[in-house]
Amino acid sequence: MASMLQFFPILYLPFIFIYCTAFKSNLKPYIVYLGSSSNGNGGEDLSHLQLLSSLIPSEESDRISLLQSYSHAFKGFSAILTENEASRLSGYDKVVSVFPDPVLKLHTTRSWEFLEAVDDKFRSIHPSNEHKSSDIIIGVIDTGIWPESPSFSDEGIGKIPSKWKGVCMEGSNFKKSNCNRKLIGARFYNKNRKGSPRDNIGHGTHVASTAAGAPVDNASYYGLALGIARGGLPSARIASYQACLTDGCSGSVILKAIDDAIKDGVDIISISIGISSIMQSDFLNDPIAIGAFHAEQRGIMVVCSAGNDGPDPYSVVNTAPWIFTVSASTIDRNFQTTVVLGNNQSYEGTAINFSPLTHGKAYPLAFGEKVAASFTPAFDARNCIPGSIDPKKAAGKIIVCVNEDPNVSNRIKKLVVEDAKAKGLIIIDTEGQLLPFDSGTYPSAVIGESTGSRILSYINSTKKPTATILPTKVVPRFKPAPVVAPFSSRGPGGLTENILKPDIMAPGVAILAAIVPKIIPGYSPPGNKTSLFSIRSGTSMACPHVTGVVAFIKSKHPHWSSSITKSALMTTASVSNNLGKPLTNSSDYYANPHEAGVGEISPIRALDPGLVFETTVQDYLYFLCYFGYKPKILRSITNTNFSCPKISAEKFISNINYPTISIASLKKNEDIRKIKRVVTNVGSSNATYTSNVEAPPGLKVLVFPNRLNFSAGLKRAAFKIFFDGKEASKGYNYGAIKWFDGLHVVRVVFAVNVE
């Protein structure tokens, strides 16, 4: 009997181990959102800990701790919980929402000159060398900042504004002296020994310098894009909040950074970050939407990137109406490289490469599947998937690959063929992205399908095909521009289609801006030297362009609310390219509002918009009512006795006073849909505006009244728009209502889904 008992511990150990492992794996960080802060003075940590202690068993008291605590603009915290504990906590009276802490991703200079070319007056009102003091403070929530960049020089800038209440946190390789009158604040949230506000990725530095970088003469990326690098408002101050590391961006940290930025006294918050479009949660389970709402309550505009999951529809993120959502466009500069074949035919590809190859020598040319490793499927080899290429077959050759597998990036393809000792890489882009891929000194080019078919035909037409790839050249004054970037996420919004998203478009392709001066492993720059600037693409780059323009407008109209500024930009946006024709997408079709929003930002037109749509916090609360949130939750969010309208339905979202109109469903057999808007006159005191409707065939749109008279003392006027879809084509119908007083054109874009 004794001998049998000796086996029981051994038999039970695996069960105990599995049970403990399962229990521990059930633990993960959650965000607990408790609504509006009553005093905004902090000091909520004790009550948050008491809430946790009422939930977590005493034997696990080590878990009664806060990862983050929010107590300035809103209340809440993040902590390690089990799923069951999170579920129980969500039922507490004072709790608005409890949700897993999400991991968000980064949405990764000729641009300002291009905007000046679009709007001739911009240059005279906003000279490139303007760098006098400004009290506008931009909070950049990103990967931190590289303070030594010349883009953050404070030369010529006066003392820090007295409204600034923030800090410059010291950390690893970052001292308080790294801040100055330009970079006035820096925070980080990774509290380990190596934590620091210093940017080691480069994204945050690039974004901050695009929004508000000081002018830097003779800036370039190893000689490419040579010119003056500067931000949208070079005189603005920058406060950096490092919320992202190499493994992503924690939602709880982003929320903490927004809370800190509000407390610190920033005027604008720029966030080039977002959750995956396929994992979107509702507005009160989204850390950016929550934080942005409370920023808007305090008059702080939050500008966000739309995402890089285009050209698929329903891929846009950061779609709350109180967020200014930005899509990306090209500028009138292109980076091209020439592929010269052995038959003397040459083709232009898109690239950023500093190829050492010349016209004088050609190299064997081969399709990927013809140099496949043994037992490798042809699909893998032609896509240059790791392990698919045989170095013995590929060495010394220029390899042609395709991009049929979205999981294998151009950078990976480059590493695969480079590792196989190939001489260069040509990528046939089957998706029509055709973006400049930076391969350093390694010869590469990205080409379209039609060009690719010609190159493959040449390979098949001769026993010894050859080619060479020449270094990149800059093509200035490129036309047409702007064009909607192919990667830019598209609407309609996945959560509701009754708000038109994205809002607006700005330069986001091949943007030159400051960078962390380091050499990335696997990348060979010219002369093996670092650069102070880099060329990057993404809605991440478009977002700070709008941030910079918002700062510029705020410097001219300091008393405008964030919604007035937003409306001014949206109703005055440009809808033409540099050929004088309508904006297009990368497939050469006319761009619709679900791709380009209202159009390309036009800073100077926005300074004098004539009429604006003021969207109030009450509008946003009505939006949440119509979306389906209960009044009790909204009272917690606002700390008021707010009540929803007696009749709340999602279709009424279309009626909130937004600068665009979106109707998710207009049935052919239903009555005419009525939409109401109210405009505020910020132009001349005596003005009469007349409406004009641009609508697609079959969709009947009537505006009443069709004239708005503003006499002395009259600032606001209401009008109604009636939509009749009985004879319209099914699907989305796009158009605009224009109000004109002889000087101003106020353009209100609409999108109506006829069913």
Automatic annotation (TrEMBL):
<feature type="domain" description="Subtilisin-like protease fibronectin type-III">
    <location>
        <begin position="655"/>
        <end position="752"/>
    </location>
</feature>
<dbReference type="InterPro" id="IPR034197">
    <property type="entry name" value="Peptidases_S8_3"/>
</dbReference>
<keyword id="KW-0645">Protease</keyword>
<keyword id="KW-0378">Hydrolase</keyword>
<keyword id="KW-0732">Signal</keyword>
<dbReference type="InterPro" id="IPR045051">
    <property type="entry name" value="SBT"/>
</dbReference>
<dbReference type="InterPro" id="IPR022398">
    <property type="entry name" value="Peptidase_S8_His-AS"/>
</dbReference>
<dbReference type="InterPro" id="IPR041469">
    <property type="entry name" value="Subtilisin-like_FN3"/>
</dbReference>
<feature type="active site" description="Charge relay system">
    <location>
        <position position="142"/>
    </location>
</feature>
<protein>
    <submittedName>
        <fullName>CO(2)-response secreted protease-like</fullName>
    </submittedName>
</protein>
<dbReference type="InterPro" id="IPR036852">
    <property type="entry name" value="Peptidase_S8/S53_dom_sf"/>
</dbReference>
<dbReference type="Pfam" id="PF05922">
    <property type="entry name" value="Inhibitor_I9"/>
</dbReference>
<dbReference type="InterPro" id="IPR015500">
    <property type="entry name" value="Peptidase_S8_subtilisin-rel"/>
</dbReference>
<dbReference type="GO" id="GO:0006508">
    <property type="term" value="P:proteolysis"/>
</dbReference>
<dbReference type="InterPro" id="IPR037045">
    <property type="entry name" value="S8pro/Inhibitor_I9_sf"/>
</dbReference>
<dbReference type="GO" id="GO:0004252">
    <property type="term" value="F:serine-type endopeptidase activity"/>
</dbReference>
<dbReference type="InterPro" id="IPR010259">
    <property type="entry name" value="S8pro/Inhibitor_I9"/>
</dbReference>
<dbReference type="InterPro" id="IPR023828">
    <property type="entry name" value="Peptidase_S8_Ser-AS"/>
</dbReference>
<dbReference type="Pfam" id="PF17766">
    <property type="entry name" value="fn3_6"/>
</dbReference>
<comment type="similarity">
    <text>Belongs to the peptidase S8 family.</text>
</comment>
<dbReference type="Pfam" id="PF00082">
    <property type="entry name" value="Peptidase_S8"/>
</dbReference>
<keyword id="KW-0720">Serine protease</keyword>
<feature type="active site" description="Charge relay system">
    <location>
        <position position="540"/>
    </location>
</feature>
<feature type="domain" description="Inhibitor I9">
    <location>
        <begin position="30"/>
        <end position="107"/>
    </location>
</feature>
<feature type="domain" description="Peptidase S8/S53">
    <location>
        <begin position="134"/>
        <end position="577"/>
    </location>
</feature>
<feature type="active site" description="Charge relay system">
    <location>
        <position position="203"/>
    </location>
</feature>
<dbReference type="InterPro" id="IPR000209">
    <property type="entry name" value="Peptidase_S8/S53_dom"/>
</dbReference>
